[in-house]
Amino acid sequence: MRFSRSAIVAVTAVAVSLALKLQAQAAPLLEAKPEEVGVSAQRLERITHAMQQIVDKGELAGMVVMLARKGKLVYQRSFGMQDKDKQVPMALDSIFRIYSMTKPVVTVAAMVLVEEGKLSLDEPISKYLPEFKDMKVGIEGYDPTTGAQSFYTVPAKRQITVQDLLRHTSGFTYGPNARTQVQKLYAQAGLFSQKWTLDSFCKELAKLPLQYEPGTVWEYGHSTDVLGHVVEVASGQPLDKFVAERILRPLKMNDTAFEVPADKQGRLAQPQVDPQTGKVAELIDVTQPATFFAGGHGLVSTAGDYLRFAQMLANGGELDGVRILGPRTIAFMASDHVLSAGISRGPN
After folding, report:
1. Number of domains comprising the chain
2. Is the same domain home to 141 and 188?
3. What was the pLDDT predicted at 25?
4. Helix or strand or coil: residue 106?
5. What sign results for the dihedral spanned by CA atoms 189, 193, 196, 202?
6. Using an 8 Å Cβ cutoff, are 98 and 248 in contact?
7. Residues near 26 by Cβ (< 8 Å), separated by ≥ 6?
8. How far apart are CA 37 and CA 3, in angstroms?
9. What is the Cα–Cα distance from 168 to 296, expressed in whole angstroms?
10. Of 68, 92, 116, which closes a domain?
11. Closest CA to 171 of 121, 220, 227, 210
12. Contacts of 3 (CB under 8 A, 6+ apart)
């Protein structure tokens, strides 16, 4: 039997298409039966039951759960809806805005530069971002007799270091749900928006006082956003490019980025109406080209991609023959840098 050239081309195109589809659907890690790695398959079903209950009660629209042990994938399930309004079921490769799970990725990016000698933990960040050289600290006072409140600033006793950014002891805070005067200033400046570039964001942040003296209090805040700009300056690359070249592509995290391209937007998970408020949360619009590569909250990813990132860390910095960081660096990152240094925790 003879085939025409057009028929051969058509068959080849179908074969390539199927191969690409199978590759896209491949498990993020090698799979194993639960018992092969010391996990009870029967007890894993407790996860299935518990997660399904959360969806059935309407607490979450949907979710993806993956579990690995000893480097092998033993459980992966999707629950509920990716888009409840459009009745799109959740899939294993649904894409999520991962918000603060961006922080570990950008932290790894910084530590790559530390290993290369392009960044040092004890350096003041003003070496890279001069606008942070002469920071002020906000001081709030209260007269219990008159009830009068006062607010003033004083020069910071020392500069913010790279390590301060990494361990959230920079003195930066967050503005939403403002309780303090400094947080109110953050909110007024609109820091928690996507209108910025990293450069313009840092210049605006540097105009505002710190919540605490650097190195004295652990406070969850904009530290990793600033760290992202330090990575840019130290590496000579935009943050999105550096993260993609040094972490995402080597780890085959193909669906992780600061935006979702048009051909993947059908996989983007969307929020449901909050049963308590009756409103839908306003989330970052990741369908448009990104200009603000927020190191603290900007990435999108899939459960499978992030599992690969987490497994790299669990392996001591390596996955599938690709090394991102050395094992001593990973061990150092996982050690205590707060309590052992006598640093207290803020109210947030």
Report:
1. 2
2. yes
3. 57
4. helix
5. positive
6. no
7. none
8. 49
9. 11
10. 92
11. 210
12. 11
Pairing mode of beta strands 217-218, 344-345? parallel
State the average pLDDT over residues 274-293. 88
Main-chain dihedrals φ then ψ at residue 188, nearest 5 degrees: -65, -35
Statement to judge: residues 79 and 111 lie in one domain: no
Comparing CA positions, the residue from 338, 288, 331, 337 lying closest to residue 313 is 331
Give the per-residue pLDDT at 280: 81
Domain span at 65: 27-92
CA distance 346 to 156: 17
**pLDDT tens sequence across 130-162:** 999 999 999 998 777 777 789 999 999 999 999
Residue 173 token pair: 């805070």
State pLDDT tens for residues 158-177. Answer: 999 999 999 999 999 998 88
Handedness of CA 315, 312, 105, 301 (dihedral sign): negative
Together in a domain, 51 and 102:
no
Please tell me whether the overall predicted TM-score, pTM, comes out greater than 0.70 for this model: yes
Tokens standing for 168? 């959230």
Collapsed DSSP state (helix, strand, coil) of residue 38:
coil
The angle subtended at Cα 132 by Cα 237 and Cα 210, nearest 5°, is: 125
